[in-house]
Design goal:
Number of strands: 2
Oligomer: single chain
Number of helices: 28
Radius of gyration: 30 Å
Largest sheet: 2 strands, antiparallel
Strand order of the largest sheet: 1-2
Shape: globular
Helix content: over 70%
Strand content: under 5%
Structural class: mainly alpha
Length: 624
C-alpha cells in the first residue's frame, strides 16, 4: 500500500514539469513525460491492487493518512487515502484506460501547437480523478471533484482560438458548477448531522443514527444527487456533454470513459448506506432520472451527423443505465457496467479519432463511407465497440453488463424502469448500426489515407480485446464493499425464475433495433426516412432531436435571456447613479447660494430685513 499515493503523485509531477517547462520541451520529451508518468501511475496502481487482493480479505478498507490538511477548531480533515474494492476498481479503470488514452494521444496530437500544454492538462485531469476516488473524506473528494471540473474546462477549450470552443468550455464549466454547488450544500448538511466529513465515519454511523426517510438525510442526499447529475451529465444538467466534443478526441475519450462522467456514479455508490436510508430519492431522483436520460439521449443520438456527438449522447445514455442500476439497488452491477463502458467507450472514441485523422478531420458520418478497407483495425474496433454498446449477445462485454442491469430492474419489480431500459437498448442498436454503416460501408465520399504507428494500434488492440467477452471475465472485488442486489440474492437462492424472460425481452428489442436499422438504411437506403424528414411533422421531430430536445433553448429562455436583460439594466450602474444624487443636491445648493452673492447693497438690505421679519414672526408665534 506504500505505492498507492504514487498513483496520483506521478501524473501530478508530470503536470508540474510540463506546465512549467512546456515551451522549452520538444514533442518527444513532452510525450515521454506525459505518457511515462501515466505508465508509472498505472504500474503503481497494479502493484498496490495485487498486494491488496493477495493480502486482504473481502470487504477490507485500508486507510492511509498522509498529513493533516487543515485545522479549524475541532474540524481537522486529513489529506488521507482510503482503499477498498471499489477504490481498486476505479483506480484500475482510471490508470489503465487513462494510460492507453495518453498513448493514443501522443500519436493523435503530433504536430499540434501546445503539445506539452495538452499533456500537462491531461496529467492533471487524471491526478484529480484519482484523488477523488481515493479520498478518505468528502472534503478531499471535493478537491478532486473541482480539479476534474477545471481540467475539463481547459481541455474542452484547448483550441481556444476558435470562439465556439471557448463557449463550449464555459458551458461545461458553468453547468457542472451548478451541480458542484448542490454537492457543497450536501457536504455542509452531512457535516452538520455527523460532525465529520470522513467517508467511513458517515457510512458507518448513518444506519445506527437515523431511521429511513429522515428529513435531514433526504435533503442531504438530494443535494448529493444534484452534484452527481452535473458531473455525470444526467437530466437536467446534461446539456454540456454534447458540446464538450469541441476538445481533441483523446479528451473526449478521457472524459467519457475513464474520468469525469463516472464521478457521479462513484459518489452515489460510495455513499450507498446514506442513500439506502432515503429510498424515494434513490428510486426517483437516481433510477428514474437515469431511465429518462437514457431514452432522451437515444433519441438525440439518432438525429446527429457528427460521429463524436453520436458517441457523446451514447455516453449520456450509458451513464443513465448506471444511474438506473443504482436506483434499483444493483450497486455492484452499476460499477461493473462502469468498467465495461470504460473499455468500449474508450475504444469507440479513440477509433473515431483515427477515423477523423484518416479523413482529414472530417466528422460528418454522411461525408465518409467505404472506410473498412482503408483502416481495417479501426473498422473492427468499431464493430466490437459498437457491438458492446448495443449489447451484442455472448461476444461483447456490453451484453453481460447491460443485461445484468435490466434483469436487476426486472427482479426488483420496477417494470416501468425495466421497459424504459429495454427501449433504450432498442434505440442504441438503431443509432449504432446507423453510425457504423454510413462510416464504413457504401461508397467513399471523402478520400481517406491509411494509418500507421504503434502508438495508435496498441491502445485500440488492447481495448478491442477488453470490449469482448474477455473483459467480462474481470470481476470487480466488490463483495463486502457494496450490498448485494435483489437479482443476485434470487440467483443464489435458485429462484431467479424471471431472468430468462427479462433477457429474452431485452435481446428481442436489441435485435429489433438492429433489424429495423438494416431495413431503413440498407434495404430502403434511407428513402423512407428522407420522406419523413421532408414532412412538416417529421422535420419538426428531427429538428427537435437534433437540438437535444430543446433543452438548450429552454435554458436560454429561462436563465440566459433574463440574465442578459438584468445585465443590460445594470450596465449603466444604477446603484452608483442613486448615490450620485447626494453630490448633485450639494451642487444645486451651492449654485443657489452662489446666486445670492450679487454685490448689490439694496439686495442685501432687503434680504436682511426679510430675514428679521421672519424671525420676529417665529418669536411671536412661540410666545403665543
Amino acid at each position: 500500500m506504500s505505492l498507492l499515493p504514487l498513483t496520483f503523485i506521478f501524473p501530478l509531477i508530470g503536470f508540474l514539469i510540463l506546465a512549467s517547462m512546456r515551451d522549452r520541451l520538444s514533442q518527444n520529451t513532452a510525450r515521454l513525460i506525459g505518457v511515462g508518468s501515466m505508465g508509472l501511475s498505472a504500474l503503481a496502481a497494479l502493484i498496490a491492487s495485487v498486494s491488496f487482493l493477495t493480502s486482504q480479505p473481502a470487504g477490507t478498507v485500508i486507510n492511509i493518512p498522509l498529513w493533516t490538511w487543515m485545522q479549524v477548531g475541532d474540524f481537522a480533515p486529513a489529506f488521507g487515502l482510503s482503499f477498498d474494492g471499489l477504490a481498486l476498481t476505479m483506480t484500475g479503470v482510471i490508470t489503465g484506460v487513462g494510460f492507453l488514452i495518453h498513448l493514443f494521444a501522443s500519436w493523435y496530437m503530433q504536430g499540434e501547437t501546445g503539445y506539452a500544454r495538452f499533456f500537462s492538462y491531461m496529467n492533471l485531469f487524471v491526478a484529480s480523478m484519482l484523488l477523488l476516488v481515493l479520498a478518505d473524506n468528502l472534503l478531499l473528494l471535493y478537491l478532486g471533484w473541482e480539479g476534474v471540473g477545471i481540467c475539463s474546462y481547459l481541455l474542452i477549450g484547448f483550441y481556444y482560438h476558435e470562439r465556439a470552443n471557448g463557449r463550449a468550455a464555459i458551458k461545461a464549466f458553468t453547468v457542472t458548477r451548478v451541480g458542484d454547488v448542490f454537492l457543497a450544500f450536501g457536504l455542509f448538511l452531512l457535516f452538520r448531522e455527523f460532525g465529520t466529513l470522513g467517508i467511513q465515519e458517515i457510512i458507518t454511523q448513518a444506519p445506527a443514527m437515523y431511521e429511513v426517510n429522515n428529513p435531514a438525510l433526504i435533503l442531504a442526499t438530494t443535494m448529493l444527487v444534484g452534484g452527481a447529475m452535473g458531473k455525470s451529465a444526467q437530466i437536467p444538467l446534461h446539456t454540456w456533454l454534447a458540446d464538450a466534443m469541441a476538445g481533441p478526441t483523446p479528451v473526449s475519450a478521457l472524459i467519457h470513459a475513464a474520468t469525469m462522467v463516472t464521478a457521479g456514479v462513484y459518489l452515489i455508490a460510495r455513499m450507498h448506506p446514506v442513500f439506502i436510508l432515503t429510498p424515494g430519492i434513490l428510486l426517483y431522483w437516481v433510477g428514474a432520472v437515469g431511465a429518462i436520460t437514457l431514452v432522451v439521449a437515444g433519441f438525440c443520438a439518432l438525429a446527429q451527423t457528427d460521429i463524436k456527438r453520436i458517441l457523446a449522447y451514447s455516453t449520456m445514455s450509458q451513464i443513465g443505465y448506471m444511474f438506473l442500476a443504482l436506483g434499483v439497488g444493483a450497486w455492484q452491477v452499476a460499477i461493473f457496467h462502469l468498467m465495461a463502458h470504460a473499455f468500449f467507450k474508450a475504444l469507440l472514441f479513440l477509433s473515431s479519432g483515427a477515423v477523423i485523422i484518416a479523413t482529414h478531420h472530417e466528422q460528418n458520418i454522411f461525408k465518409m463511407g467505404g472506410l473498412r478497407k482503408k483502416i481495417p483495425l479501426v473498422f473492427w474496433s468499431f464493430i466490437i465497440g459498437g457491438g458492446a454498446l448495443a449489447a451484442v449477445p455472448l461476444v461483447t462485454i456490453g451484453y453481460y453488463s447491460k443485461d445484468a442491469i435490466l434483469w436487476e430492474s426486472y427482479a426488483a419489480g420496477h417494470q416501468a424502469l425495466f421497459f424504459m431500459g429495454v427501449f433504450g437498448a432498442f434505440l442504441t442498436s438503431l443509432y449504432t448500426f446507423r453510425m457504423i454503416w454510413f462510416t464504413f460501408f457504401g461508397e467513399e465520399k471523402t478520400h481517406a489515407h491509411k494509418l500507421s504507428g504503434l502508438s495508435y494500434q496498441i491502445p485500440l488492440a488492447v481495448l478491442l480485446v477488453l470490449s469482448t467477452f474477455v473483459g467480462a471475465w474481470i470481476t470487480p472485488p466488490l463483495q463486502g464493499v457494496l450490498p448485494e442486489s435483489v437479482g443476485q440474492v434470487l440467483e443464489m437462492a435458485g429462484e431467479a425464475h424471471g431472468k430468462h424472460t427479462a433477457e429474452l425481452i431485452a435481446l428481442a428489442c436489441s435485435l429489433a433495433g438492429g433489424v429495423l436499422a438494416y431495413l431503413l438504411y440498407v434495404v430502403n437506403a434511407g428513402r423512407l426516412l428522407a420522406r419523413f424528414k421532408a414532412s412538416s411533422i417529421g422535420g419538426a421531430i428531427y429538428y427537435w432531436c437534433y437540438h437535444g430536445l430543446g433543452f438548450d433553448a429552454l435554458y436560454d429562455w429561462i436563465f440566459v435571456k433574463p440574465f442578459l436583460f438584468i445585465g443590460r439594466l445594470l450596465k449603466s450602474d444604477p446603484v452608483d447613479k442613486i448615490w450620485n444624487v447626494l453630490p448633485m443636491l450639494a451642487s444645486i445648493g451651492n449654485k443657489a447660494m452662489v446666486a445670492t452673492q450679487s454685490g448689490s447693497l439694496r439686495g442685501y438690505a432687503a434680504s436682511f430685513g426679510l430675514g428679521m421679519a421672519v424671525l420676529l414672526v417665529l418669536v411671536m408665534m412661540t410666545v403665543v
